[in-house]
Amino acid sequence: MTLYRAAVMDTPRDPLVEGPDALRADADAGLLVRDGVVAARGPFAAVAAAHPEEEVVDLRAGVLLPGFVDTHVHYPQVRIIGGLGMPLLDWLTSCALPEEARLADAAHARAVAREFVDGLVRAGTTTALVFGSHFPGATDAVFAAAEAVGLRMTAGLVVGDRFLPEPLLTTPDAALAHGRALLEKWHGRGRLRYAVTPRFSLSTSDAMLEACAELLAAREDVWFTSHLNENPTEIEEVRRLFPGAGHYLDSYHQHGLVTARSVLAHNVHPTAHELEVLAGTGAAVAHCPTSNCSLGSGLFPLAAHLDAGVRVALGSDVGAGSGFCLLKEGLQAYFVQRLLGPHGVDLGPAALLHLATRAGALALGLSDQVGDLAVGKQFDAVWVRPQPGTTLDVVLRHGADAPDALAKIFTLGTPSDIAVVWVAGRTVSGPSAPVPPPLPLEAA
Ligand SMILES: O=c1[nH]c(=O)c2nc[nH]c2[nH]1
Ligand SMILES: [Zn+2]
């Protein structure tokens, strides 16, 4: 057992519903961790007195937060982060899809999988819903990389049978067979789960979406993820391709793909009826603010989602998004709501923390395990500890109170300020993280 002593902040209650007081901030907390689980929590003096024999790890030089939960991120796109200046469909054609085709090469895919998982944990992400690759071998590689590091990951084979470059195309039968094999191998293994992942309606025929439905029905605890209402040109094209669908969401819903185990990314341009269906089914939306800004997709209507009762969490959407760190996504979400003026939601620091942690856990059906640091939860945590003398270090030393410190962390924090990351009590990034094996590049 280990007794961590730290300033701890988390949001077991929802600040978007209950207001800023929902931030739980303990200036000098003791968290006793046994077998990767928070076994006791309270004022440090009280927990230490009750467990005098435990080794104490003193983290008071920084702030301890729950591990971040990224609800939308693309594994094959790590190396193309930063492709600026294009709207969605141009960016896909000239930037993302050519790079994704390179994952046909197994050694390349393994290297990218390692870079991807490493990028996530260095940024403090301990749980992620991941778009895999169009290639079964490459998707297998990202599961293996996540398992090796210990990342809590839900992912799946990305499938499509139109719009894509030829090497990325598949058929409904092949998608089903490959998806089933990956699901049987990885779903429920350790912290890994499978998500049925059609790329987006634009790249999937009704027959492909029917194959997705068949795979989703294979096991009751399998997840579903895809894209929705990201860009006006995309939406228009989906309307043309699915004349029988009432709207974009309907192209999935008609096949039974929209449920409480569905996470749809973006939804920047929803109709009122789509919000109603999302709320009614319990499906969640992954809000990807840096991606939406970078591709010029639009300003996310968070208020309309919340008013309709739709669950929303954050996604980095790497590689259209500008990096893995959910602190940056939180800040960008805040900026976007400010730009919406009277139509924006007032996102205080507690709301940003919730969106980056517990909201993601809720969206992924994992809130009984992760998302906050209550007793009984897994010790998935990040220690924000800026290097002495950095601007974040300076402003934290002159902060007023806990919400103020949290606002500063979201404003200035980067992966280099995240000193240690734990998943289930084990260090996955930081000084004592296991050194990963060498890249298998010689196999190329
Ligand atoms: O932001 C996005 N990134 C993608 O890779 C993608 N594919 C379909 N739609 C998409 N949107
Ligand atoms: Zn995406």
TrEMBL record:
| The enzyme's E.C. designation | 3.5.4.3
- State whether keyword Metal-binding applies: yes
Q: What is the purpose of this protein?
A: Catalyzes the hydrolytic deamination of guanine, producing xanthine and ammonia.
Q: Which InterPro entries match?
A: Amidohydro-rel (IPR006680), Guanine_deaminase (IPR014311), Metal-dep_hydrolase_composite (IPR011059), Metal_Hydrolase (IPR032466), Metallo-dep_hydrolases (IPR051607)
Q: What is this protein called?
A: Guanine deaminase
Per its record, the protein catalyses:
guanine + H2O + H(+) = xanthine + NH4(+)
Matching entries from Gene3D superfamilies are given as: Metal-dependent hydrolases, Urease, subunit C, domain 1
* Source organism: Georgenia ruanii
Which cofactor does this sequence's record say it needs?
Zn(2+)
Q: Where is the Amidohydrolase-related domain?
A: 63-428
Top-level taxonomic group: Bacteria
Q: In which pathway does it act?
A: Purine metabolism; guanine degradation; xanthine from guanine: step 1/1
Q: Where is the signal peptide?
A: none
Question: What family does the database annotate?
Answer: Belongs to the metallo-dependent hydrolases superfamily. ATZ/TRZ family.
Any single GO molecular-function term of the entry would be: guanine deaminase activity
Instruction: Name one process (GO BP) from the record.
Output: guanine catabolic process
According to the record, cofactor stoichiometry and binding are noted as: Binds 1 zinc ion per subunit.
Q: Which Pfam families match?
A: Amidohydro_1
Report keywords, A-Z. Answer: Hydrolase, Metal-binding, Zinc
GO CC term (a single one)? cytosol
